[in-house]
C-alpha cells in the first residue's frame, strides 16, 4: 500500500491553480481515515431482485361493454405515485395524485419535437420552473428554420436544468449554435449534414453527419455516424466545465462563429481557410505529427484541426487559465486543460464528434473523436507541440510506455454525466459499491464520489475522480486504473459518509473486481401491503382492466468540477419497474397516508403487467402505480386502463340518464396542425359551441347537431379557420359550451403554425 500523509481540509474547498499545472481544478474536503464500509465477496442476493405478485380471483367470463378508457404515459418520480380511479357516481375514469408538471406552452412545444426525443424533453421540462419552461418552449415554437427543430429540441432536452436556468446563460445561444452548424456545413468537403424526415410533418425526423474517409487501400469511402453521436458530440454547445456564452466576456460571439471566422494578426491561421484543404476526415491510421507542418491538400480534417489548435495556442499557460474557447484562442497560451477545451470546440466547429477526456488525478486531460463505433484518442501537446491521432499513449500510463499509473480516466457529457474510459489507456480493475440503509435495504440514487491521490504529490492531497449513482439495487459499478489507492464517499437523503479507503494499490490489480458495501443511518421507505379478500357476495356490475409497461427508469446525479455549481445529469437505466395495486377507496386513503393497506391486486417491482378485477362493491376503485419505495429513480410508465359495464345488468332509462358520464369536453389531436375533433360526451344538449382566442375574442362558432346519440356523445371537426374562413395563427384557444342544466364546459386547444 502506498504511504499516505493525512491532511485535514477546511469546509471551504482550497483552490489549486497555476501555470505549472496541466489542469485547473480544486481539492475537496475528505476524511480518508473514515471507516464503516466493508469489503464483501459480491453483490448480496437480496439486493438483486424483489418482485411479487398477488391477484384476487374474479370471474371475467361475462358480457362486458367498454364504457371508458384512458391511455397515458407518465413520469412517476421517486417517493411519488399516480392513480387512475373509477368514479362510481359518474361511471367514468379519473386521474389523481400527480398533476401535469408542464405548462401549456411546454406541452405545445413537445408536439413539434421529434417523437424519439419527446420523453427526454418532457423530463427536462418538468425539472424546470414554469418561467423557464415557457422560455424554452417559446424558443422552440418560434424557431426560425425548420431544419433546426431537432437540434434545438435536443439541447433543451439534454443540457442540465441548472445550465438552462442559470442567470448568465442566454437561451438564444441554443439557436445560434445550430445556425452555425448549418452555416459551416456547405463549406466542408469531407462532411455533410444528412436530414431524415420532415420536421413540419413530425414523427421520427432527425439529422446526422456523413464523412468521406480513406480506407486501408487509400480509396475514398463514406460513412454516416449514428444520430446520438451527432447530437451529443457535435451539436452540444458545452465543451466541459465552462458555461456556454456569447456575451461580452467571450467578445460577443458563440465559439462556433468566433473560431471559424476570427483570427488575430501575427500569423495566426483562419480556421475556415485552413479547412478548405481537408478532403477527407481521416485515413484510419495512428498519427503523431510534428508542429509547424504546412496546411496542404494531403492533410486530413483531424490533422488540420490539431495543427490549427497548436498554431493558435503556441505558448504554455500563464495568467488567468481560462475555460472559454474564445478566450483561450485569443490569449494564445495554455496547458493541456486549455488545449483540451479549444481542440474540442474547434473539432465540433468542424463537425467532428469530439469528447473531453479527463485524468484529473494525474494532472492531465485530452480529447477523443468518435469513429466507426469507438472513441479514438486525440491530443495536441502544449508549447507548440505535435498532434496525436489514435494514440492511447497520450495518457502516459506505464502500460503504454509512460511514467504514470493512471487512476480514473473519464469522459464528460454536456449535462455533466461522467463515465469511465480507463480501459482504453491503462490496465484496469473494477469497483462495485453497494449502498444499503440501516436495515440492509438497497438505497437507490445515492451519489457515489470517487477519490484518489493527486500525481505527482501523491502522498499529500486527495482529489475527486468523478461521481456515479446507485441503481434500484443500490449498486454502482465502474472500472478504475490499476495500482492506485481509491476512496469513496456516499451522499443520500438517508445519510452522508466521509471518504474512506476502499481499495489500496496492492488490491487494484489488473482484472480484479472489488466489492464494497456501506450502510447509511437512515431507512428506506417501505409500503405495508397485504392481500385483500373478496366479500361473500361480490357484485359484478363493473370491471377494470389494466395494461402497463415501464419503458425505463432514470437516475439523477451531479457532476464535479463544473464552473458554475453542480449540474444535475440524467442517466437512463433498463428495465424500469413500478409497484401496482388495485384498491378500494378506504385502502387508497390508507396508502396516501402512509398506513398499511390491503389490495386486490399486488404487482411488486415488475416491468409490465396485465390484470383485471370485477369490482366487488359499489364504490370508487383505484389503480395505483407506486414509486414510493424509490428515492431518486423516475419511472417512465405507459398505461392503459379500461372500464367495462356488465351488459346483463338491467338499467332503467331514468337510471341510465342518472348514471351517464359527467359532461366532458376533449380535443383530439391536441395540439393540432390542420384539423382537430372536439368531442363532447355525457350531454343532453346545449347551445352552439364557441371558440375564443387567449384574449377572449370570439374566433368561431360551431353548431351542434339536432340529434345526440344515446350516450350523449358528439364529435365536431374544427379545421383551424375563423368565422371568415381565414386560418387562425398558432397559439392557445379555448373551446366553450353551455350545457342545459349544467355548468359551462371549457377546454384548451393548441393550434400549431
Provide a short characterization of the protein structure:
With 753 residues, this protein is an alpha+beta fold.
Question: Which tags fit this structure?
Answer:
753 residues, alpha+beta, seven-stranded antiparallel β-sheet, six-stranded antiparallel β-sheet, disordered N terminus
Structure commentary:
With 753 residues, the chain is α+β, with helices and mostly antiparallel strands. Helices cover 16% and strands 33% of the residues. It has 14 helices and 40 strands. The strands form 10 sheets. It has a 7-stranded antiparallel sheet with strand order 11-15-14-13-12-16-17. Strands 4-30-28-32-6-7 form a 6-stranded antiparallel sheet. Strands 5, 26, 27, 31 and 33 form a 5-stranded antiparallel sheet that branches. A hairpin with a 7-residue loop joins strand 39 (731-737) and strand 40. Helix 1 packs parallel to helix 3 and helix 11 (325-331) packs across helix 12 (336-349). The longest helix is centred in the middle third of the chain and has 14 residues, at 336-349. The protein is globular.
Amino acid at each position: 500500500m502506498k504511504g499516505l500523509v493525512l491532511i485535514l481540509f477546511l469546509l471551504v474547498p482550497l483552490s489549486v491553480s497555476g501555470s505549472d499545472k496541466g489542469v485547473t481544478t480544486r481539492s475537496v474536503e475528505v476524511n480518508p481515515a473514515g471507516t464503516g464500509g466493508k469489503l464483501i465477496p459480491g453483490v448480496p442476493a437480496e439486493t438483486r431482485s424483489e418482485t411479487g405478485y398477488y391477484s384476487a380471483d374474479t370471474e371475467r367470463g361475462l358480457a362486458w361493454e367498454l364504457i371508458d378508457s384512458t391511455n397515458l404515459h407518465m413520469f412517476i418520480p421517486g417517493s411519488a405515485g399516480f392513480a387512475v380511479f373509477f368514479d362510481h357516481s359518474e361511471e367514468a375514469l379519473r386521474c389523481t395524485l400527480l398533476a401535469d408538471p408542464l405548462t401549456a406552452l411546454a406541452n405545445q412545444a413537445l408536439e413539434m419535437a421529434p417523437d424519439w426525443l419527446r420523453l427526454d424533453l418532457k423530463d427536462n421540462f418538468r425539472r424546470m420552473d414554469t418561467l423557464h419552461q415557457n422560455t424554452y418552449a417559446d424558443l422552440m415554437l418560434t424557431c426560425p428554420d425548420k431544419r433546426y427543430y431537432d437540434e434545438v429540441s435536443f439541447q433543451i432536452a439534454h443540457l442540465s436544468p441548472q445550465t438552462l436556468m442559470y442567470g448568465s446563460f442566454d437561451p438564444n445561444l441554443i439557436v445560434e449554435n445550430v445556425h452555425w452548424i448549418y452555416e459551416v456545413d456547405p463549406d466542408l468537403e469531407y462532411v455533410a449534414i444528412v436530414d431524415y424526415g420532415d420536421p413540419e410533418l413530425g414523427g421520427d425526423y432527425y439529422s446526422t453527419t456523413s464523412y468521406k474517409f480513406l480506407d486501408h487501400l487509400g480509396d475514398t469511402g463514406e460513412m454516416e455516424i449514428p444520430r446520438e453521436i451527432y447530437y451529443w458530440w457535435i451539436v452540444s454547445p458545452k465543451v466541459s466545465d465552462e458555461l456556454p456564452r456569447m456575451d461580452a466576456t467571450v467578445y460577443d460571439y458563440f465559439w462556433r462563429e468566433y473560431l471559424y471566422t476570427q483570427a488575430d494578426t501575427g500569423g495566426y491561421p483562419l480556421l475556415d481557410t485552413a479547412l478548405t484543404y481537408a478532403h477527407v476526415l481521416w485515413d484510419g491510421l495512428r498519427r503523431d505529427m510534428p508542429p509547424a507542418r504546412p496546411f496542404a491538400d494531403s492533410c486530413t480534417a483531424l490533422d488540420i484541426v490539431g495543427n490549427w489548435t497548436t498554431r493558435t495556442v503556441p505558448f504554455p499557460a500563464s495568467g488567468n487559465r481560462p475555460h472559454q474557447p474564445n478566450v483561450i484562442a485569443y490569449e494564445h497560451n495554455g496547458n493541456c486543460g486549455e488545449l483540451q477545451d479549444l481542440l474540442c470546440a474547434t473539432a465540433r466547429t468542424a463537425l467532428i464528434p469530439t469528447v473531453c477526456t479527463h485524468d484529473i488525478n494525474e494532472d492531465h486531460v485530452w480529447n477523443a473523436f468518435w469513429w466507426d463505433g469507438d472513441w479514438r484518442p486525440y491530443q495536441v501537446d502544449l508549447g507548440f507541440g505535435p498532434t496525436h491521432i489514435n494514440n492511447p499513449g497520450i495518457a502516459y500510463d506505464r502500460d503504454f510506455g509512460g511514467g504514470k499509473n493512471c487512476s480514473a480516466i473519464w469522459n464528460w457529457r454536456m449535462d455533466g454525466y461522467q463515465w469511465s474510459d480507463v480501459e482504453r489507456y491503462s490496465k484496469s480493475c473494477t469497483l462495485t459499491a453497494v449502498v444499503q440503509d440501516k436495515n440492509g435495504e438497497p438505497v437507490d440514487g445515492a451519489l457515489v464520489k470517487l477519490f484518489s491521490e493527486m500525481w505527482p504529490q501523491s502522498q499529500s492531497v486527495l482529489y475527486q475522480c468523478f461521481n456515479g449513482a446507485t441503481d434500484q439495487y443500490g449498486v454502482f459499478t465502474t472500472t478504475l486504473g490499476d495500482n492506485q489507492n481509491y476512496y469513496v464517499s456516499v451522499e443520500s437523503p438517508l445519510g452522508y459518509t466521509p471518504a474512506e479507503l476502499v481499495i489500496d494499490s496492492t488490491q487494484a490489480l489488473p482484472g480484479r473486481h472489488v466489492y464494497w458495501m456501506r450502510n447509511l443511518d437512515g431507512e428506506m421507505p417501505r409500503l405495508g401491503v397485504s392481500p385483500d379478500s373478496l366479500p361473500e357476495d361480490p357484485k359484478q356490475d363493473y370491471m377494470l382492466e389494466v395494461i402497463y409497461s415501464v419503458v425505463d427508469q432514470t437516475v439523477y446525479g451531479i457532476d464535479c468540477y463544473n464552473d458554475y455549481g453542480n449540474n444535475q445529469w440524467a442517466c437512463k437505466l433498463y428495465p424500469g419497474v413500478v409497484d401496482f395495486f388495485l384498491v378500494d377507496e378506504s385502502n387508497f386513503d390508507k396508502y396516501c397516508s402512509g398506513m398499511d393497506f390491503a389490495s386486490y391486486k399486488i404487482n411488486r417491482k415488475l416491468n409490465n403487467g396485465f390484470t383485471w378485477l370485477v369490482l366487488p362493491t359499489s364504490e370508487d376503485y383505484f389503480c395505483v402505480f407506486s414509486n414510493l419505495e424509490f428515492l431518486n429513480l423516475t419511472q417512465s410508465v405507459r398505461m392503459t386502463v379500461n372500464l367495462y359495464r356488465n351488459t346483463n345488468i338491467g338499467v332503467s332509462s331514468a337510471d341510465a340518464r342518472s348514471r351517464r358520464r359527467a359532461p366532458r369536453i376533449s380535443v383530439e389531436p391536441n395540439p393540432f396542425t390542420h384539423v382537430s375533433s372536439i368531442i363532447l360526451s355525457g350531454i343532453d344538449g346545449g347551445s352552439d359551441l364557441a371558440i375564443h382566442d387567449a384574449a377572449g375574442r370570439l374566433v368561431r362558432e360551431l353548431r351542434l347537431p339536432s340529434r345526440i346519440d344515446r350516450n350523449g356523445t358528439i364529435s365536431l371537426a374544427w379545421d383551424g379557420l375563423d368565422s371568415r374562413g381565414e386560418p387562425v395563427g398558432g397559439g392557445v384557444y379555448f373551446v366553450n359550451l353551455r350545457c342545459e342544466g349544467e355548468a359551462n364546459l371549457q377546454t384548451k386547444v393548441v393550434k400549431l403554425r
